[in-house]
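Feature request, filed as a ticket because there's no other form

It would be nice if the structure record came with a short human-readable summary line next to the tokens. Right now we just get the raw output. Example of a typical job, pasted below so the devs can see what we mean:
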Amino acid sequence: MRAPALDEAFTDFVRASTSSLTRTAWLLTGDHALAQDLVQNAYAKTLRAWDRVGGGDPLAYTRRAVVTGNIDRWRRSGAESPVGLGFERATPDAFEDRVADRDRVTRMLATLTPTQRRVIVLRYYEDLTEAQTAEALGMTLGAVKAAAHRALAALRSHYPDAAGPARTPTDTQGGAQR
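Raw output as currently delivered:
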């Protein structure tokens, strides 16, 4: 039986992290029910390892469990790729613009490879550093940078109006053009 203090610490962690982890899982899967299942399974793994990870960074451990759980899920399903497996369309509500933006983002993410999607979600939606993203995904820093670069290039080519202002040579070289 677990000590009440450990149960309370884990419960507090779950309350604080559920929203973020569910959003990450949903962005990875495109399905709310699958996202909830991934988060629940990740919490079960985290609870089993709580003695090791509870004093460190349980969010990083649990986030990685969500990501690897998603990889395992689509490998077991026999699908060639999880891309385009049916990102559910958001239903209209009082926040039509927000819903339209969310729907567009999920469609954009669905065009990426699974690795690119994981990198973009963790790097830009979860706001992790490149090093934290690499650690969470078990990739090298260079692989994260390359995947992010390729993903952003793919998004720019598919959605040129969403790329923002055009870059100039000055922007990429860090100084004035000669």
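Something like this underneath would help us a lot:
The chain has nine helices and no strands.
Residues 28 and 153 are 19 Å apart (CA to CA).
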